[in-house]
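REQUEST ID: PR-0412
SUBMITTED BY: lab tech R.K.
PRIORITY: routine
TASK: structure prediction, single protein chain
INPUT:
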Amino acid sequence: MEVNRKKILIIHNTLRGWGVERNLIFIGKYADKNIFEVAYLLTTERQNSSENFFDNEVKLLYLKTPQVRQNRYTWIINLILKFIYLVIWLRKNGKDIDYLLVSTLDECIITYIAKKILSLKSKFIVFHQLHFSVIGREKNNPFLNLLLKIIILIDKDANGILCLSKGIAQDLKETHHIKTKIFVHPSCVDFQEIDALSKETLDEPWLLEDERKAIIYVGRLSNKQKRIDILLKAINVIRGKEDLPFKVLIIGDGEDRTFLEKMSKDFDLEGIVYFLGYKENPYKYYAISDLFVLTSDFEGFANVIIEAMACGLPIIATDCPSGPAEILENGKWGILVKRGDYITLANKILHVLQDEEFNKKLRNNALIRVRDFEYKKVFEEFNNFMIKF
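STATUS: complete
OUTPUT:
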């Protein structure tokens, strides 16, 4: 006898991206398909651009919202358009959905209001992947802070909250006094998939001929959060101190790429630091690297750390809220440095690259710790949480 599966509808703008989008993709890939039927309703993405992420059991639906060219003044117009189209779609299709799951600010607000207007019986689940208190403080944007306050009010009326890290969960409970049921749902890794991806051919074959040791950073080039400038400052210190041939691979793109490339040029790091742009498959670059470095001022979880660990890389990360210290268990499995301390970072990089025994120890630590984030384990706990509703 066929069992009726619970229907999860994930409402998001796009699945094209790292971080947030990848964690939402994992739900469609790894949630128990005997229990859940997962579908995505994409509010701004156009059709056929994300089909290769899933098997045939996962539905990709498109709201096809018209968009006004994005700027600081048209944001609200686009939000209203998304809301109108979402209400129309949910009125027609939303009655048999068991869970509405949202993650971004826009989709959280419009989905919550649409659910109330239509009196849908679906459970409303918010997946928080960013640290609200830190974002509000770091961004220092009154309008953004207003939106965050609205989200907190929605959290208090939600049926459940998923948090990407313990730090995010603790912030919601202690700072914002959320009493809604909260479950910590970290990111995960699929060792078999990573092994296959790490063996793919590089886009830059010259990297295989370059015998210098490789330091790698993977992520958005958004310096207010990621602080790649701290990595460049550390590299500038190192290259002048030791006879240690090395290169730095910067994988990613973003609004601050031009600024960071100019900074690298001003430091005369051309031929040492390589900006390789966004890569659909970063694993083949982890595979040729010797050390992963993350210099963020704040994170939600830092997926890239466990991705690098799954490839056996030693980890150096800033002790920022929240994620790195949780993953590395306060330095047990990798190296933590203070935010902004590029001198200490430089010294730690030298230690890892020069001391082969220490490097080997950190590689072994990474492979041991990352098993706690294997997708089967992470999603067994996710399934148990969701079926309680």
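NOTES: The CA atoms of residues 188 and 373 lie 5 Å apart.
REVIEWED BY: pending
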